[in-house]
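Continuing the series of single-chain predictions for the mutant panel. This is the parent chain; the variants come on the following pages.
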Amino acid sequence: MNRIPVPALLVTTALALTLGACSGGPGGSGGGSAQDAPSTRIAVNLTGQQAKAGAPVVVTLTEGPRLQQVTVTDSKGGNLAGKVSADGRTWTSQRPAAPGTSYAVEARDTGGGSAKADFATAAPAKVNKLSLAPGKNTTVGIAQPLSIVFDHPVKDKAAVERRLKVTTSNGTEGSWGWMQDWSGKDRVDWRPKEYWKPGTKVTLDAELNGVDSGAAGGWFVRDYTTTFTVGRAQVVKVDLDGHRLKLLRDGQVVKDVAMSAGTPGGEKASWRGTTVLMSKEGTINMRSETVGLGDAYDKMVDYSMRLTWSGMYAHAAPWNAAYFGNANRSSGCIGMSDANAAAVYDAVQVGDPFEITGADAKGTQALNNGYGEWNLSWADWQAKSALR
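Parent structure:
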């Protein structure tokens, strides 16, 4: 018995392919001939080898009973998840087609028929990337936000924010907020409504592959993820006017040390407000010209704990010992004795809040000067989301 040839490619406004149904034909059950078997035809909204990325893949059944299953596989072996419509005529992917990617489509209908198609998307003219904080599998303090800084501008902030999924182990309420980073780049942070509960496990899935960040920004061509755990419940309270630094753990004072902060009345004054410990940097070289204070100092400084991008630290300052506990006479940082700085350095975690109060300040820390989001009310922070 001669085989009946496979029907030729059907060309419509979208790519389509016709194949004989699995029932019938040589060796099939039911006794009918291949000519009597129903055919399956599909149309795909993306066609050719230079299809435009960024849109969902839509597969339409143009001939056949109902779609049963559609598989869209990319050139790396990954699959686009999707859903068949209630009427069984279309399937739509949940995520957009990524740029510079080849896709193979296979559809099966409820009658046992199948059809295949393929297409490829055009390569991106520009690629956008990002950096994430905190780092993967880290343990952080109760004030640590999720923070994303983008290499290129993000014009379509809503499209990007929709693809940022935060999952917590205890249903923590939080919100994204957009700003310009201290570096001048676009940045978006996610902070909880209140400080994290200790032990909370947090996962960020930035499902950005195939998202266009807008004019001058370019396409994202991969997904990103990070996970972290919230550690001990610690708060550092700095009283600028009383010249004391207290470390509280679970609400109890575990350290109370004398300190001297920035000289009031000018640029050397310290910032007030709630800041977040960004990093523990150990012994570093501090030079006044890097923070706009001329040639006032050039020192190797021990137990350095960064609080802002503008150069405010808590650290050891033995040269300022005469002022600990009685006057603010530093160049903006919170200085302590070697022993006290070492004790605080050992105890604090990246992500711990430093709640700085007092009149001897030059103002409140800016939103983007480190992590200043805790200085905004919850309503004001929510208003910075692109989806509000």
